[in-house]
């Protein structure tokens, strides 16, 4: 059996349709070389995913919470039981109860309001950074704010580091003689804040995934990371294997994330009920196999990856991924100070809400362990931190450059310095 190398594009191909046709033909040929057709291999994936979907829908029928919940105290004490760990791995998502004291989270929320108001943010707001004609002076839901004392205190807190290390260690981070990442050191990926006021109407956010777009099939790094999906040996695919995931990049674009995140996450800064426009996921990490192989079936045009293209989020849709959608599950009620986490490859969405009850406030803080990819990005994060700039993954809005009360380098503790790659 001869297995030829896959064509790859480590930069965005100039002709997307031609590259799509070429990679799909090559992937089909490579899978066929394993002795099974694409259809046979996909049937295996479909059956596995079906079993997981049934598990989720059965739990829902029994009235159980689909999202696993673990108390922070158990993570701190190292007393998370084997059943809870197994559920976390099966569902790929988690609510950490009491990650921070409720008063601490509410205090951070007030601190953010003081921070932006004292710097006249609302008067000067220029509209969404990617919308040239955005209206001046309106109140955004997403604040393009990165360097408030509240955010940095949370990012460099021991409680955050402990939960990130716990989540990172669910991944296999050493294999083939390589240590792919350091589970005990986070890179403090700076992201924004959402503050959605009482009474708000929001259309929500459709089902999508974050780790990439066409690059998931086309770059040499991702081809290595998803090697078992692309060589016909899907039984060996492990969504918790970090091998080859921590050095390559993504195609540039408005939706890219330069960092490798084991889990996406946010920390609640207000109480939120489960029916108030909250986060949902398809809680099945191995659904990635379905998403990456589905375009190879014959009912998808040769130059189409089920609607995935560059510069737009990867859409998960009823048209191409209907069986997965049955498992879409929302978080339970959360309180200020709880945190919410989901495997970086999982489909997620934000439900719409009308006349929202209570606030919907979160700080986006993921788990982004130290690895070559995150170390490279940390250089630009350091620069953004020192100058109060927007990090390079985000629109170049730079509101905080002249804000005197932003978090300063002398406020960093050891976790903060380590995360930014500054000398201790
Ligand atoms: Fe997302």
Account of the protein in words:
It is a single chain. This protein has 424 residues and is α+β, with helices and mostly antiparallel strands. Helix content is 35%, strand content 13%. A 7-stranded mixed beta sheet has the order 1-2-13-9-15-7-3. Strands 11-8-14-10-12 form a 5-stranded antiparallel beta sheet, with no helix packed on it. A two-stranded antiparallel ribbon has the order 4-5. Helix 2 packs antiparallel against helix 12 (287-293). Fe (ii) ion binds at residues 208, 210, 348.
> How would a crystallographer describe the biggest sheet?
7 strands, mixed
Proportion of beta-strand residues: 5-15%
Bound molecules: fe (ii) ion
Estimate percent helicity: 25-40%
The coarse overall form would be: globular
| Protein structure class | alpha+beta
Write the layout of secondary structure elements.
Elements: H1 16-32, H2 38-61, E1 69-71, H3 72-77, H4 82-91, E2 93-97, H5 102-118, H6 121-124, E3 142-143, H7 149-155, H8 158-168, E4 174-175, E5 178-179, E6 182-186, E7 193-196, E8 205-209, H9 215-218, H10 220-225, H11 227-230, E9 263-268, E10 279-281, H12 287-293, E11 314-315, H13 318-325, E12 329-330, E13 339-343, E14 348-350, E15 360-364, E16 369-370, H14 372-387, H15 414-420
Parallel strand pairs: 1-2
Antiparallel strand pairs: 2-13, 3-7, 4-5, 6-16, 7-15, 8-11, 8-14, 9-13, 9-15, 10-12, 10-14
Helix pairs in contact: 2-12
């Amino acid at each position: 059996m001869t297995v030829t190398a896959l064509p790859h594009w480590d930069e965005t191909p100039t002709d997307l349709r031609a590259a799509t046709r070429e990679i799909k033909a090559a992937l089909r040929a490579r899978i066929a070389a394993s002795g099974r057709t694409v259809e046979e291999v996909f049937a295996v994936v479909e059956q596995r995913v079906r079993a997981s979907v049934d598990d989720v829908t059965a739990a829902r029928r029994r009235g159980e919470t689909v999202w696993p919940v673990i108390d922070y105290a158990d993570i701190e004490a190292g007393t998370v039981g084997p059943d809870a760990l197994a559920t976390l791995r099966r569902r790929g998502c988690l609510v950490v109860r009491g990650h921070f004291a409720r008063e601490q989270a509410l205090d951070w929320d007030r601190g953010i309001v003081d921070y932006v108001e004292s710097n006249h943010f609302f008067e000067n707001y220029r509209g969404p950074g990617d919308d040239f004609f955005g209206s001046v002076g309106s109140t955004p839901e997403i604040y393009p704010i990165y360097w408030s004392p509240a955010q940095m205190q949370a990012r460099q807190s021991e409680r955050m580091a402990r939960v990130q290390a716990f989540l990172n260690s669910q991944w296999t981070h050493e294999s083939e003689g390589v240590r792919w990442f350091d589970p005990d050191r986070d890179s403090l990926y700076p992201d924004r804040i959402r503050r959605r006021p009482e009474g708000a109407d929001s259309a929500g956010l459709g089902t999508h995934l974050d780790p990439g777009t066409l690059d998931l099939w086309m770059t040499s790094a991702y081809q290595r990371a998803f090697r078992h999906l692309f060589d016909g040996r899907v039984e060996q695919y492990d969504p918790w294997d970090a091998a080859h995931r921590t050095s390559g990049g993504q195609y540039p674009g408005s939706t890219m994330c330069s960092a490798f995140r084991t889990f996406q996450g946010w920390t609640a800064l207000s109480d939120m009920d489960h029916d108030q426009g909250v986060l949902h996921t398809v809680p099945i990490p191995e659904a990635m196999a379905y998403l990456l192989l589905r375009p190879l079936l014959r009912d998808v045009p040769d130059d189409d990856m089920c609607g995935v293209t560059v510069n737009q989020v990867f859409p998960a849709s009823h048209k191409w991924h209907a069986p997965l959608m049955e498992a879409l599950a929302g978080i339970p009620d959360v309180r200020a100070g709880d945190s919410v986490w989901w495997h970086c490859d999982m489909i997620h969405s934000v439900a719409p809400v009308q006349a929202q009850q209570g606030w919907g406030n979160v700080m986006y803080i993921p788990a982004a362990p130290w690895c070559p990819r995150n170390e490279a990005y940390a250089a630009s994060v350091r620069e953004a931190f020192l100058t109060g700039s927007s990090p390079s993954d985000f629109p170049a809005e730079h509101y905080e450059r002249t804000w005197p009360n932003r978090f300063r380098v002398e406020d960093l503790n050891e976790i903060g310095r380590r995360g930014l790659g500054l000398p201790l």
